């Protein structure tokens, strides 16, 4: 059966019990041993001008000192089994889903299920380089605040297709945001949320999937985003006077990111196969590539803990997802960059349903309220004075408050 006796793990009565199974992560001992051997034998680049701590402020990437320490920690101090046990302390499942053409897919998800009959279903969607684990601090706060019997929400954290623990996209056809949204929608229907509907909620790539759900499926009743990356609207100059100083700095940071920060994305999108091979060949290469983003995209006041970074990178490595999780960047850089307003202000992604937006000032593309309002029916907004690209890790308490306020304002 799909339900278990664990707290917050009882599937809704309308869920497809046969297609959803309890799940726990367990990486085989041999895979752990092979990983340690590869990591131990992986050399670092020799010291050079660009990788010295003195040049860190130039934004040239991870330093020799940081990667040396991270490798030593990962090899000799970090305990995967401890982290694995923590991940497994949250209810997890797999759902067997058939795509429209009959292709079988397995979708992994963590969840907190409520026993309240009127609990609001919320599907939270992650991005890259994150996994479902990014949001577990939020689930921890919800567990502390609510008993299973009075939790106001069903919180679903899927692993997107191609990401750790879910099936990769098929080999014989292209795969885009809309395809991932379709699979996530089928998951929510399998969980029994077709009649009453659900809310989508996401950041980074997950924000694009959440938006796609809202504009595509009637059952998705509202959407809350913490990320709304878009080019300046046509009337950006006219709107500038209405922006706060914080928002103006956010716009400038987004412009700088376009020139100095998104080379990784262009590589993902235009040489997807090559970078997939590179990141799959060495755990140290994967750590450098992903670690850089955790170091640079967080609010400096809320630096991401090294153990958290190592847990996320380990999930990618052990599940061989480094190459299969890059597909959205092809849509972005091979096609999307040529489309007006892409991504969040694209005409075909305008949200007519209730739309909420949380603004975090140190986001890598902190889009101002006046811009984001143009992308949909914004009925709720909150600007914070702290937080970056990873609010679930950096400021989970603020994110819980935002989600609760938004849901109470749109779900009657």
Give a brief description.
By secondary structure, the protein is an alpha/beta fold.
Q: Which terms would index this structure?
A:
Epoxide_hydrolase; Rossmann fold; 16 helices; 9 strands; alpha/beta; single chain; AB_hydrolase_fold; 412 residues; 9-stranded mixed sheet
What's the structural blueprint in terms of helices and strands?
Layout lengths: L19 E3 L6 H13 L22 H13 L3 H9 L3 E7 L5 E9 L7 E6 L10 H10 L7 E6 L18 H14 L7 E5 L2 H12 L3 E6 L10 H4 L5 H16 L2 H8 L1 H10 L1 H15 L8 H13 L8 H9 L15 E9 L9 H4 L3 E8 L7 H4 L1 H15 L2
Parallel strand pairs: 4-5, 4-6, 6-7, 7-8, 8-9
Antiparallel strand pairs: 1-2, 2-3, 3-5
Helix pairs in contact: 4-16, 5-6, 9-10, 9-13, 10-11, 11-12
Protein name: Epoxide hydrolase N-terminal domain-containing protein
Keywords: Hydrolase
Family: Belongs to the peptidase S33 family.
Helix content: 40-55%
Quote the beta fraction.
5-15%
What is the helix/strand order? EHHHEEEHEHEHEHHHHHHHEHEHH
Q: CATH class, please?
A: Alpha Beta
Give the end-to-end Cα distance, rounded to a whole number of Å. Answer: 32 Å
Q: Please tell me the overall pLDDT.
A: 97
Strand order of the largest sheet: 1-2-3-5-4-6-7-8-9
Poorly predicted parts: none
CATH level-two architecture: 3-Layer(aba) Sandwich
């Amino acid at each position: 059966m799909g339900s278990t006796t664990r707290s917050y793990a009882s599937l809704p009565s309308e869920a497809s019990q046969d297609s959803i199974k309890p799940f726990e992560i367990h990486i085989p001992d041999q895979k752990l041993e092979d990983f340690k051997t590869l990591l131990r034998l992986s050399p670092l680049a020799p010291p050079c001008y660009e990788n010295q701590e003195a040049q860190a402020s130039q934004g040239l990437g991870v330093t020799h000192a940081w990667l040396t320490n991270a490798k030593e920690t990962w090899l000799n101090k970090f305990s995967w089994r401890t982290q694995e046990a923590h991940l497994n302390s949250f209810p997890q499942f797999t759902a067997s889903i058939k795509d429209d053409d009959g292709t079988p897919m397995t979708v992994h998800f963590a969840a907190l299920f409520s026993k309240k009959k009127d609990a609001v279903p919320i599907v939270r969607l992650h991005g890259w380089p994150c996994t479902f684990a990014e949001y577990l601090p939020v689930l921890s706060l919800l567990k502390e605040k609510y008993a299973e019997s009075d939790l106001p929400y069903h919180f679903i954290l899927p692993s997107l297709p191609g990401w750790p623990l879910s099936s990769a996209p098929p080999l014989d056809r292209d795969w885009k945001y809309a395809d991932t949204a379709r699979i996530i929608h089928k998951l929510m229907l399998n969980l029994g949320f077709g009649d009453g509907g659900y809310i989508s909620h996401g950041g980074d790539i997950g924000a694009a999937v959440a938006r796609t759900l809202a504009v595509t499926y009637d059952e998705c009743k509202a959407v809350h985003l913490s990320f709304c990356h878009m080019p300046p609207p046509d009337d950006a100059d006219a709107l500038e006077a209405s922006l706060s100083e914080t928002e103006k700095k956010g716009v400038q940071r987004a412009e700088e990111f376009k020139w100095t920060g998104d080379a990784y994305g262009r590589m993902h999108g235009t040489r997807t196969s090559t970078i997939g091979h590179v990141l799959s060949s060495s755990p140290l290469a994967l750590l450098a590539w992903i670690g850089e983003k955790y170091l640079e995209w967080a609010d400096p006041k809320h630096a991401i803990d090294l153990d958290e970074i190592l847990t996320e990178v380990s999930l990618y490595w052990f599940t061989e997802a480094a190459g299969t999780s890059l597909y959205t960047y092809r849509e972005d850089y091979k096609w999307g960059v040529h489309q007006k307003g892409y991504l969040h202000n694209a005409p075909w992604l305008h949200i007519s349903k209730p739309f909420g937006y949380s603004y975090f000032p140190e986001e890598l593309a902190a889009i101002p309220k006046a811009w984001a309002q143009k992308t949909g029916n914004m009925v709720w907004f909150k600007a914070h004075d702290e937080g970056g690209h990873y609010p679930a890790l950096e400021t989970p308490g603020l994110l819980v408050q935002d989600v609760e306020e938004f849901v109470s304002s749109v779900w009657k």
